[in-house]
Design goal:
single chain, 297 residues, 20 strands, nine-stranded antiparallel beta sheet
């Protein structure tokens, strides 16, 4: 028995040395929350009053370079990892111009820090000048490191309708990621969905559980994937994809009546997304395996 106990102790020590638990920490600095993994900066949750909506940027991959990008001359309304929507009761909670609509953080806070994960919670109001606010959302973001070269962000978002809401057909809607140009298809990267379809031509408008976007940096692949949870309303949403580096699972561009989606005052829509930042391609990162695990949670 003593020998067995010694063997088990040695096993657990070796295992912890091979796969040490990461320590994740979060610190609020003004209008952002910085997240570090083992003391190394990973991402910031930015919720400044002069921003269109809260978002994460940068989002550093295994190479320590961001896998996402923020705003450029052609698409100033793309801010890394974000959540918003255009054409909501006549307002615009997506594109630039705060007067047209803005999603404002009311209570961003760190719920958990200093252990194996960071948890951030926020409550946001969708508002614009001279109009009643149509939506309040509550979001919980859990950041963890499920394996070597893997960083995971789980988004749990509840949208509460404060009045009857009409969202006209729009490609600018809900959960979205704008990737860094290094990883874009137009620059040699790969975009692939759960069915193995690749690029904008094959993935645009297609329903799929997940899409992964990756490319080569410093001689190695790294990328970022979005997974939709099966409990989501409209699952699996079709994808709005662009080879220049944008992807978003959204029902709003394909409403059943081809005109709009209606939601009633008091409706509560729960949406869950998992973002995986990874080294390697979709097979090496086992994105399909991660989805199988995610859908059972």
């Amino acid at each position: 028995m003593k020998r067995l106990n010694t063997v088990l102790i040695v096993f657990f020590i070796c295992n912890s040395l091979l796969y040490p638990q990461s320590k994740l920490s979060a610190t609020r600095i003004g209008d952002r929350i910085d997240v570090t993994i083992n003391g190394k900066f990973f991402t910031s949750y930015i919720f400044a009053e002069n921003e269109k909506y809260p978002f994460f940027y940068p989002v550093n991959g295994p190479s320590n370079s961001s896998v996402t990008s923020i705003r450029n001359a052609n698409y100033p309304h793309h801010s890394s990892i974000f959540f918003g929507c255009d054409k909501v009761n006549g307002g615009n909670y997506w594109q630039e111009g705060l007067d047209r609509g803005q999603i404002t953080s009311l209570n961003a806070k760190i719920v958990e820090s200093g252990g194996e994960r960071v948890v951030i919670e926020d409550e946001c109001i969708w508002h614009r000048r001279d109009a009643d606010a149509p939506i309040m959302d509550k979001r919980r973001i859990t950041i963890s490191t499920p394996g070597s070269g893997l960083y995971q962000l789980d988004f749990d978002i509840t949208m509460n309708m404060l009045m009857d809401v009409k969202i006209e057909k729009t490609n600018h809607s809900l959960f979205s990621v704008r990737i860094d140009p290094d990883l874009a298809v137009v620059n040699g990267g790969t975009m692939i969905n759960a069915e193995g379809k690749k690029g904008e031509e094959e993935t645009f408008g297609e329903k799929s559980a997940w899409i992964d976007f990756y490319g080569e940096r410093f001689g190695k692949n790294e990328g970022i994937a979005i997974l939709q949870h099966p409990s989501n309303m409209w699952y699996p949403s079709p994808w709005f994809t662009r080879d220049y580096g944008f992807f978003s699972p959204t029902p709003m561009y394909w409403p059943e009546n081809d005109e709009y989606i209606s939601l009633l005052k008091g409706d509560s829509i729960k949406l869950r997304y998992r973002v995986i930042v990874h080294s390697g391609d979709h097979i090496e990162a086992d994105i399909d395996g991660h989805f199988e695990n995610y859908k059972s949670n």
